[in-house]
Amino acid sequence: MAFSAKVESSPFAGINVTPLVDVLLVLLIIFMISAPVIAHKNRIDLPSPSASEARRPDPLRITVDPGGMVFLNGTLVSDATLATQLDVASARGRDDATRIPHVELHARDEASYEDVARVLALARAHGVTGVDFASD
């Protein structure tokens, strides 16, 4: 019994499509999973502005300079004067909820951390809870 082994010397000219189909199926699965996530929208009910928020008073602008000098609305003040002004603003906020004090703190470039921390501690000790840090 003789078996003949047929050997072809010409190259096979077909394309192997199995890896291509595998990649396409993986992409199809990824898109099927991510499409509902992208199309999903959450409804958020935001509060509408009330008249009391529209009448919010101007913030107390406190500026701390590099030398440790403190300015309240552009006027140089001492710590005692600043404490008195913060007490007055806090008292107004206790009497009328629309006048709760709010501080806008400007710290100049060379101002030391200790001076800024001292002003923040003073504001907190005198009933101010809202502080915005502003830059020039």
Automatic annotation (TrEMBL):
Q: Which domain of life is it from?
A: Bacteria
Instruction: Tell me, in one coarse class, where this protein mainly resides.
Output: membrane
Q: How does it assemble?
A: The accessory proteins ExbB and ExbD seem to form a complex with TonB.
**What keywords is this UniProt entry annotated with?**
Cell inner membrane, Cell membrane, Membrane, Protein transport, Transmembrane, Transmembrane helix, Transport
- Residues spanning the membrane: 20-39
Membrane topology type:
Single-pass type II membrane protein
Q: Which GO terms describe its cellular component?
A: plasma membrane
Family (UniProt): Belongs to the ExbD/TolR family.
State the compartments where it is located.
Cell inner membrane; Cell membrane
List the lineage, top down. Answer: Bacteria, Pseudomonadati, Pseudomonadota, Gammaproteobacteria, Lysobacterales
Which GO molecular function, any one, fits this protein according to its record? transmembrane transporter activity
Q: What is this protein called?
A: Biopolymer transporter ExbD
Give a yes or no for keyword Transmembrane in this entry: yes
**What is the role of this chain?**
Involved in the TonB-dependent energy-dependent transport of various receptor-bound substrates.
Q: Name one GO biological process term.
A: protein transport
Instruction: Note the Pfam families from the entry.
Output: ExbD (PF02472)
